[in-house]
Each structure stands twice: as structure tokens, then as C-alpha cells.
Amino acid sequence: MIFDPDTIDIPNSYETLPLKDVKVSHHPAGAPEATPVIVVTLNRPEKHNSFTLEMMHVFEKIYPIFDVDERVKVVVLTGAGKMFCAGADLERGFSGMEKERNKDHRDRYDDEAAAHSPYINPVNTDINSGGRLALAIHRCRKPTIAAMQGSAVGLGMTMSLPAAIRIGCEKSKYGFVFPRRGLTMESSSSFFLPRLIGYSNALYLITTGGTFPPTSPHFGTLFQETYPDPNQIVTRALELATEVAESVSPMASYLSRELMWRNPGSAEETHLIDSAVLYHMFSGKDSKEGIKAFFQKRKPNFNATLEDDAPPSFPWWSDVDTGRRPKASKASKAKL
């Protein structure tokens, strides 16, 4: 059973949110209200931005808000200091996670859910805290650009896989070191990694557990761009994010990504799905605006939303019961 999505409040400014070890900034920084480009910074530089359960809860809070905030177009994810992310904080550990079982991995836990689902254990309320990090990023309609200005391993790598774009530093090392810690792949990385770089490269990285520069052939095209200077990474990510925010239809971009991720598996089935979506988009407001802006040689003003303008076939996949994305409260929704 899939429950109705929770209603959430959209803040006027993300920079005023009381968050722990994660910083959310507008671009340009200091803007009084949310901007089309939002910067999320892992902010534990003294610990190499090693990831904690508290930080995971922050991501589970902010990404669903980005998802429904129409002011936000693109998210840039980066780290403070010299490293992007050293993986999970092994010193602190993820208290309670060792007690988790398969049936505890659901995004919504309450007495009502427990009464209707055989998979939920209502007793473990301390670990029934939400979905996993990668899914929070993956399910967000707004694309994430991972500006990996420093080295990353383990969870620091898997959190970048749902991003649409990854930019790496040529002086840094990156790797999926799980087998060297006696662990298996996590954060849905066994789904994302082979689809992004192929099974051969993925098997090499996971079999060796080694770390490599972003230009290594073992990464394939995982890093779409690399630069020698760490300071170039965020600068370039913000340039890309601004270009996307100003020039790309959020709905068309999201639906196109979902057509790839939610592909049914055959050319014939894909033809039936993407044709139905495309025919709807031809007559949509964003298509009309995009064509008009092209001929008028100006930036487009795309304003189609999934809530009001989605194709009738959306979603063309079956929802998996990990919880529905929250919906914005119209009463509290921030205005432009």
C-alpha cells in the first residue's frame, strides 16, 4: 500500500534553515530568497566531510523540498575543504543501522503504515527515519551537479551516482572501497554504477576496491568533466547549473531523465512510452515557449509543472513502496 504524500512547507530562504553539518546556499550567495541554482555543501571539513546519520536526515529533509519548490531549477552538490567526502564516518558509525533489517528499509514509518504493511516494524522507531541518501537525490525532479572538488570514497562516491553531472579534480582520487572494508555496495549503487559506466568497468572497480584519478579508464565517462585545479570545479559547476536553469525546461529535462532510468527494456516498449510523452509535449506550454524564444533570440521562460501539465501516461512505471515524494503546501508555498 502506498500512502498519500506528506505536505511540506517551503521556506522563503534556504540559507536560514537550521541544518547540522550541511550548508545550503543560494547562488549568488546571500540572496534574500531561494534562487534557481541552490548549492548544497557537505560541511565537516575537519572530518573530511565524512558522512553521518544526521547529515543523511538533512538530505532527506531538503531534497524533497527542492523537488517541489518551483523556484529551484538545479542543485550543485559539493564539499567544504580539500575532500569531497571520505565516506561514512567510521569513528562515529551509524548508530542503530547495524540492527536494521530488509523490512526496515521503507521511507515512511508510523502506526498507520505498520498496520497495513508486512514489511514495517513499528517498534524500531529510532531507525525508522526515512529513505536512503541516493534515493533522496534520485527522486528529486531537479538535476544535481556533483562538484567533487576533492577525493571521495565509499558513500562519498555512491551519493554522486544519482547526479546528472559529475565534475572531478584531476589531482584527487576516487573509489568504491567497500570490499576493502568488508562491506558490499550500498545506496542503490549496484543499480546506478553499471548503468553509468558498464558492467566491465563497474566489476573492476568493485573487485579491486581501489582508488583512481577521475581520468582513469576504469571510470569510463563517470566524470563528464575534469579540471586540474580544485577551485575550478565549483566554478564550472555553477556555470553549468546557471546555463541549465536559464535555458532548459525543468519538466522536459526531468521526463527525459526518467525515460532513460525507467526504460522498460525493449526498443518496442520504449517507442510506445516515449512517443506518448513526446506527442503530449509537442502541444505543451513549454514547447510553445521554447520555439517562440528560439525565434525571438531570447532566454525561454519555462513554467510547465508536473502537477498541471504532465503527460497522461506519467508515471509510466509502477511505484515501489518506499514512500511518495512530499507535496508543497499551497498555503505556505513560497512565491517568486
TrEMBL record:
UniProt cross-references to CDD domains, sorted A to Z: crotonase-like (cd06558)
Region (Disordered): 303-336
InterPro entries: ClpP/crotonase-like_dom_sf, ECH/Chromodomain_protein, ECH_dom, Enoyl-CoA_hydra_C
Domain Enoyl-CoA hydratase/isomerase per the UniProt entry, residue ranges: 39-211
Gene3D superfamilies hit by this protein: 2-enoyl-CoA Hydratase, Chain A, domain 1, Lyase 2-enoyl-coa Hydratase, Chain A, domain 2
Family to which the UniProt record says this protein belongs: Belongs to the enoyl-CoA hydratase/isomerase family.
Record-given protein name: Enoyl-CoA hydratase/isomerase domain-containing protein
